[in-house]
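Teaching note: in complex prediction, the entire set of molecules is handled at once rather than each chain in isolation. The prompt given to students was simply: 'Predict the structure of this complex.' The entities are:
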Amino acid sequence: MDKTYEPIAAVTANGSASDYEFTSIPQTYTDLVLVIMARGAKSATMVLAQCYINFDFNTNYSNTLLRGDGSSAFSSRLNNSSGLWFGRLPAATATNGVFGTIIANFQNYSNATTFKTVLSRASNPSGELDATTGLWRSTSPITRIGVATYGDGNFVSGSTFTLYGIRAA
Amino acid sequence: MATFDLIQTVTVGAGGAASIEFTSIPQTYTDLQVVASVRSSDGGGSLRIQPNGLTTNLSSRRLEGSGSSATSVTDASIVFVYAVTLSQYTASVFSNITIYIPNYAGSTFKSISVDGVMENNATESYQNLVSGLWSNTSAITSLTLAKSTGNFVHHSSASLYGIKNT
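The expected output is the structure of the full assembly:
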């Protein structure tokens, strides 16, 4: 049987970078799944992890966020953003040893006709949890995906970033 | 070799069961994912996730929608998911619950991400998004999904998948 869920690439952080990028993404899958287990090194309780596509840092993104912090729920919107919100990860002053999880789905990433939508779920057990829908207003196939704190410090050593490809057939 | 492997499926038999347990989980994968289809024998819709069968060092935060409001709560000593279809809800409807555990065999605390929904042909039904934590550095070798009250009914099922990143 053909593989339908394949690892494309995996990176483990060494503690010296705030930005990890997958390049030369094969155009042979139907969808992509990015799985992140990470923690920020900044002296803060949380740091925001964002995503950029095809090295585009222009204001071509929009986001709808649904968030729970353990005491209240709320939703917000951000138009003309320079990245996709993935969620806030635990950072240096959060409970020791706690990493956050982000699972993001990029549907129909290789088509050259439609804008690209992304669904992501972020779980920060010491902070909050997010469900986010994102839009990248470009018809270009996705060939590069980056994850960054946008200047908010490095990812700690041991953080992992894995990109999977899913084939519908 | 496939990188998204079915490890085990548990199907609840006639008479129901108070828990679903996966044992002897291989330590050869990167992450684990559980996909469950379950229904409750009573009016309790919660299940608790217990790594290695333990009930200590657990906590979670939930984001819950009921069809009329959204709330977020902290559960200080359990990983709690309110998404098991209640017995009084529309007959034959089973809930969908997905549990993702990265780095389950590693030596860090274990983060548990859960999406769950019950459905009901009425104004009320519940969706839960859960961020759970097991503050233990041990590898997960077994995993229990336990009803807080009542049983999982006959035909409830859960499948455990292993995911490799290489």
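Point out the following to students. DSSP finds no helices and twelve strands in chain B. The longest strand of chain B covers residues 4-11.
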